[in-house]
Amino acid sequence: MVMEAVRDVTGWARVLRRVAVQSELAAGAHPRATLVAARLLASGRVGVSAIFRIRAVGDAHRTAFVFGGRSMDFATVDDRIDRLATALRRRGIGRRDAVALVMRNRPEFFEVEGALARLGGSSVSVSWRSTAPELRYLLGHSGAKAVFFEHDLADVVAEACREGVAVGPEGRFALGGDAPGTTAYEALLSERKAVVDDAEDGAVVIYTSGTTGKPKGAVRRFGAGQALGFAAFMERVPLRRSDRHLCVCPLYHSTGLGFAAMTLMVGGAVVIEPEFEPIRFLRAIERERITTTAVVPTLLHRLMALDADVLGAHATQSLRVMVCGGAALPAPLANRTLDAFGDVLYNFYGSTETGLVTVATPEDLRAAPGTIGRALHGVSVRLLGDDGAEVAQGAVGELFTRSAMLVEGYHADEGATRASMRDGHFSVGDLATVDAAGRYMIAGRRRDMVITGGVNVYPAEVEGVLDAHPAVAQSAVIGVPDEEWGERLRAFVVLRDGAPDDPVATAQELRHWCRARSSGAKVPREWAFVDGLPSNPTGKVLKRELRDLAVDLVRV
Known about the structure:
GMP Synthetase, Chain A, domain 3, 9-stranded mixed sheet, 24% strand, 8-stranded mixed sheet, globular, alpha/beta, 21 helices
């Protein structure tokens, strides 16, 4: 795929010229930094480490991070990366070695990834919310030789390392405080620095969300293909050198890490929040004059659940770009966000495995609310039926994609890698349609499709109808076994504040609402009213947990 990109010289030249101008990189280019960038790009080194190498030359004193009330410039971060790489090398960490990151959002996340890249190692991103058994599996499966972790997680890490995991106390490094029997992060940085040779052939292993079964580790290396993929995205979404990006999504997932990295790549500053809280999010935009941010639909749901007067009490006019992805964006939620913040919302489709695939601009979302937009330059998208043939326009097919951003595959799982591929294209199991304008719309997940009375029903379509009801804040629909119909639809509904508290009357109202807008097979037969829906950090609803949820059901 990279060779195809090389052959498309004219197209990529156009993309790169446009990005250089609109990102302000052309106007702010430093001669020495340009030479360093050319050298690193020519050798295929374009990861986090390369970003700080380049910026430390041309933008040494520009702010890279704002966190916890303090700022760090690019030169400081680059120096800390070198110090950390030196300390890890002294401890036997080197090429092809894996190191786990069990960390909340903080600048050190980038420092560890950068240091491992300079050593040719692999960083394994792990949720800090992982239980000891979950962490034990991830450490063992990845073959991690060391682990960086928040000091208050010391007991969880110790428990995870007790059985068959090759991470002894000497390979455990604590951040943010003391953890007896381990090494403090700042102690590593205080050691004498040596020359680091910039191996830069390391990898990032991001374990997938695990909505079904065990998570799989997607292996990503940062070569020229990644840089081209970022450029194609920035052609469509106007990121600038002068940006101040608010990072609230977890850095252990691709959404949070990827958009922060793109901001750093063009020389912008990243303001890091430990996690998302709606009021704190609005205050940060106002205080830091935030221009860009990235969220997932779950966070948008929480934000837009605030009263209009609360939203209006904060100055958010500096915000130019709000990127949303990681899960399906319901059309009503897209409309409410555009109405509240203006035309700043961009909805993207991509995954840990595929990289960035499509982007919907605010104009696309106004025309077709909820769309994931059009394919980016250099991306091939195919919608395939069960027979492997491409489906007709408007029909539902499984979304396969190919680009220079595709991961190498799943770590230690060739079977899963092969099962996800068709003719060089990769699928994570999403179903979609495409309209005459080339705009794609997610129809649901292949494994979530319900067959009731012989009719294929895509839960996302039913959820879209429900979410449009004024009383509904969020919904999720699953299929459950039914002797007569094979499966029947069960809807889990989160109601807005102030909605009627009579579940039977509400279920009847929602049933009539669905009947007026959908065929009979798409109308839920069972209703459960819940306070919230279980979801992973990327915003995907965990439907396997819904199936086991003990709830009072209303049948109407």
